[in-house]
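Sequence, structure tokens passed on for absentees:
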Amino acid sequence: MQVHSLSVIDIMMSQPCEITKSVAAVFRNVVAVPRYVGAVPRDVVAVPRHVGAVPRYVVAVPRYVVAVPRYVGAGGNGAIIHYRAEKGSCKKVDKDTLLLLDSGGQYDCGTTDVTRTMHFGTPTDHQKMCFTRVLQGHIGLDQAIFPEGTPGLALDTLARAPLWSLGLNYRHGTGHGVGAALNVHEGPHSISTRLWVTQPLMAGMIVSNEPGYYEDNAFGIRIENLLHIREADTPFKFGDQSYFGFERLTMIPLQRKMILTDVLSEKEIQWVNSYHKEVWEKASPRMQHDKDLLAWVRKNTQPL
């Protein structure tokens, strides 16, 4: 019997069955995370509370194995990129809080990673502007089409340019590889400013899209979805090259009140509305047993 060795590149190019299972894991997580973020606003209206780990919402989802480490930062703690709530430093969440929640789950079929930022009262104009610029960068990367052989380094600017236009930036990579029921941070590919990471993005890889902005001692903002790299349907193939694009895997609403629609272009508004329509159509059938959750998702996927 002849045995062929697999390179790390072969391993990181998920097979169709692994992509299918990763999608299944994402949809299990899409029930868990809204349960959490939908429950928090009901609590903070009456009594400010500490927000930390979210095990009971994730553990309740079928075929859950273990939690991906959760980074939950309220107010100034959100500006600490990988802050974990701890006694002595954690903050109370109230109606004036901007909360950053980076969460995920390790299921028997796949690995998930998602970040959402939400305000429980009335965000400031500055917070909304920063969030909107982060969203524009997220959309710019999400919509990218690129030729085979392109490393993530070549796409990183797409996510940063809207922030750069205001003289703002963030001090972490824009995207990391994610394994299929393996590591939540897994190379060799990434989307970042690391000049030495030249691994091309290839069809079958999964990568995160997570631009952000962090203001010391004030707040943190990050929007993270997982993307599946797949061949794009382009009218031409210059040089007989394949061209690639992204398929969104994560289906969790964005908080609409954080978005300045007058800053977005018509195409960007269409992207948000199309994404929320997709979230509702794909996620709602899995929530029919939970009317409160269904109502929360319906409310938060309305058009801008």
The chain is about 30% helix and 20% strand.
